[in-house]
Design brief:
This protein has 14 helices and no strands. The protein is an all-alpha fold and 310 residues long. The longest helix is centred in the N-terminal third of the chain and has 25 residues. The relative contact order is 0.21.
């Protein structure tokens, strides 16, 4: 575990790089696993799969096994931007626009609206909108977390700025920052009790995120998404168990899977990511994720030698 203010050894840096890789790869795995049962109810999943434990494709998008959706594709837009030019919301928005124009397999309604606003008006943020409390900004925040490792204040600023390109709502902002902080803590080997305290602090500030008792809702509303992710991350004991439990909740399962995969990947590390799941992803995607995760850590405050500030 890296404590606050600790100096950084070569072994610690290597471990953080591995956990950063597991963060982005875990998110892609959760996306690919969950896309099969997106918009399904738990009973529908049980009737068709019993328990979905394999990446099999299909679903309403009729994906091939291992295909990913907008969750991963928008995250890659941010990761590529950060690795190439550093922090630039304009560059990120431009990459979102180019991706949007490429006819992706799926685009969430709020993301669609925000990208269209940027294309038509060139604005990097819209005004507050009650309808912006979706999970589309939270699903793609993992690269920002990796690029800001060791600097919580920088994370807060960048997480919100990338979110506001498409989503301007306090609950979306809070979810983006919480996910980023949990990734920070996982990548720096903070104990589970620290992650639990962080969650408790955010729930105290935003009581709607409270997940005990768990209501079992897994919609695209960011509150339902966060309740599902937090409940299953904190009530399971391995990466695979966390992801299987999360996506079998159904609903917006590719997004809950992607977010849970990022947090659990950071916390558990790459050795816990099932090899048979990784084998389903396109090799080029896995290679790019590894290269991008390394670039993001190298460019982060942590990679430049800044002590960890939790």
């Amino acid at each position: 575990m890296l404590s606050t203010g600790a100096s950084i050894s070569s072994d610690a840096l290597a471990d953080v790089r591995e956990r950063a890789y597991a963060t982005l790869l875990g998110s892609a795995l959760g996306d690919a696993l969950g896309a099969t049962v997106e918009f399904c109810t738990p009973s529908e999943i049980r009737a068709q799969y019993g328990v979905l434990r394999k990446i099999v494709g299909g679903g309403w998008l009729r994906l091939k096994p291992g295909d990913v959706t907008d969750d991963t594709e928008m995250s890659l837009c941010i990761a590529r931007s950060l690795a190439t030019v550093g922090w630039s919301p304009a560059d990120i928005a431009g990459r979102f626009a180019a991706w949007f124009k490429s006819w992706p397999v799926d685009v969430g309604n709020t993301c669609r609206r925000g990208i269209a606003r940027y294309i038509n008006h060139g604005t990097l943020a819209g005004p507050f909108n009650e309808g912006d409390a979706g999970n589309g900004a939270a699903m793609r925040v993992a690269p920002v977390a990796l690029a800001t490792l060791a600097d919580g204040r920088l994370l807060e600023r960048w997480a919100v700025e990338q979110g506001h390109i498409t989503h301007n709502h306090p609950l979306s902002d809070a979810a983006c920052v919480l996910i980023g902080r949990l990734i920070h803590m996982g990548c720096t080997q903070q104990p589970l009790a620290c992650l639990q305290r962080e969650v408790q602090c955010v729930v105290a500030q935003f009581p709607s995120f409270r997940f005990t008792p768990f209501r079992g809702l897994s919609t695209a509303y960011v509150v339902d998404t966060m309740q599902t992710v937090l409940h299953h991350f904190l009530s399971t004991h391995s990466f695979e168990e966390c992801l299987v439990a999360t996506v079998n909740q159904g609903g917006d399962a590719d997004t809950t899977g992607a977010i849970a995969g990022a947090i659990a990947g950071a916390y558990y590390g790459p050795t816990q990511l099932p090899r048979h799941w990784i084998a389903k992803l396109a090799p080029a995607l896995v290679r790019e994720i590894q290269a991008l995760s390394e670039h993001l850590v190298e460019r982060s405050p942590f990679g430049r030698g800044q002590p960890v500030v939790i």
